[in-house]
Each structure stands twice: as C-alpha cells, then as structure tokens.
Amino acid sequence: MAIRFGTRGSALARWQTHWCADLLKEKEIDSEIVVIETSGDRVQDKSIVNIGAQGVFTKELQSALLRGDIDVAVHSLKDLPTEPVEGLVLSSVPRRGAYRDALLSRKAAAIDELPKGSRIGTGSLRRKTQLVYHFGNSFQIDEIRGNIETRLRKLDQGGYDALILAEAGLIRLGYSERICSFLEPPFFLPAVGQGAIGLEIRFDDYRTAEQIAFLCDTVTWVAVLAERAMLQKLQGGCIAPIAALGHVEGETLILHGRILSLDGKTMLETTRNASLQDDPKLLGISVADELIKMGADKLLEEIFCQRQDLPHR
Asked: What is the pTM of this model?
C-alpha cells in the first residue's frame, strides 16, 4: 500500500513533498501525493497574526491526517506549532537545508548598502524587529504576503526596494541567482526550524513510522528539537519575535536563542551548550529559562498586551 503524503498546494510545499517521495522511491517504497488547501493559503491579503497565527498552514493537514485521508503531513517545520496535537507525532525530520535569511534587492548587494528610506518587504515579525534593532528607522519595513513568485513579481514591478526571504525556499525553487547576500547568524537569527521539513504521522501508525525512519537526520533532529523546546517554553509562537539556531560541533549541541520587543528596541539573547548524549529538549528549556531570567517573561507580557485583540499561539 502506497504512503499518502499530504501537502499544501504552494510550489515550495509540493517541491518538498516530491523530494521526500523521491527518496522513498529510491527505497522502492510507493507513495502518492494529496494536495490540501490551508487557511493560510486561502487568505493572502492579511498578516498571519491577523488570521490566527496558530497553525494557519498546518491545521487542515493535521485534520486530514487524523481522519486517515493521508498517512504523512509534510510541513515546513517553521510553520508547525510546538503545541502537540493529540493523536499525532512529529516522526521524522530530514537533513536540514539552508537556514539563513537572504536579501533580494534592485538597489544594493548587501543590507547595509541600501539607501536610507528603502522599502523592505517581509511578512515576518522576527525579521522586521531584527532589522529595526540593527538599523533603527533607516528603512521602511512593510508587510508582504504571497508565494515566492508573487513576492518576486512585486519586487520587480518596483513595489519594494528589497525583500528578505528564506534561503531554503529560494534554492529549492531555483531562484538562488536572485539572492544578493545573506543575513548571517549570529547577526541575524532564523526562525525556529527554518530550512527543515517536518514529517508528522498518527502516533500509532508504526508501519509508516518504520518506512520513513530512514529520512530522519540525527544532527538536524537534535537541533530542531532544542529550538522547538525553547519556543514552546517561551509560549511566544508567531505572536512574538523569537529566533533560534541549533547546531552541532563534534559531540556538542549548541543553541543560540533570541527574543525581541515588537518595536525592535530591545533584544535578549543567550547561547548554551549540551552534550549530544543529553536530551536536546532540556537544552531548549534551559535557553528559554535563561531568557526568562533576563526579562523575556516581561517582554512577552508586554507583547501579549499590545496584541490582545489578536489570536495568540
């Protein structure tokens, strides 16, 4: 019986799903792909936080998984909420792709070369607040929605002077030549799970778990588990500008975590290490605890108060 992969209909989501299916084919495992529209795909004229940040790109896939319409929900891991859904489990995370944020511009090769007042398009609070923290009011930072093709068209038509997009999506869809430069860590940290693909299944579907187990990359797995544990402990979700990057050096897992205020004037960050023999989730929790000691809890309270009219994750 073929494994049924569920995916969003965007070009990037379909690319990621076909990539997973091709790897199964190499193992002579049959699969089929089921395209499912999500609320995040249907509503393109509003900010993510205004349409309900919790699972706007994942809920419909998870519902199909629970109904048994599909066997695996394929997610861009940065879109998957950290709060578990009863009956489902994150089963496998393939080797992480590129995780940096990239600058695309008609006017400059690097972010610090953009003329003052340049209009930068981004749909991410994390990106916006890090820009403000580093560059103050030098730029006009405006919301932009839509798939990669739509955003590139808006840039080419002169609606924006620059865009900031995820490197992974640009590479996967063949737009790497559009990248002018990268916003490198630790100067600019990515979203939790950025560049990684998450494969979610029903918790008792042992057959599927066994068949996709080979897709899981150990180094990526421990890194994203630490990042997601940090985010879950902070309870910030998409409503707060939170960034993190986990990586492995030798036998050590290193996690750098960051949270910013909505106005971008305050940034709290810390880095902690753990042995690869330790539970990576405990490292994520310890980074979150350290940020809380530094004042992240007060920062989050202020953020929630400022966004009390919006749905929270």
From this structure: 0.92
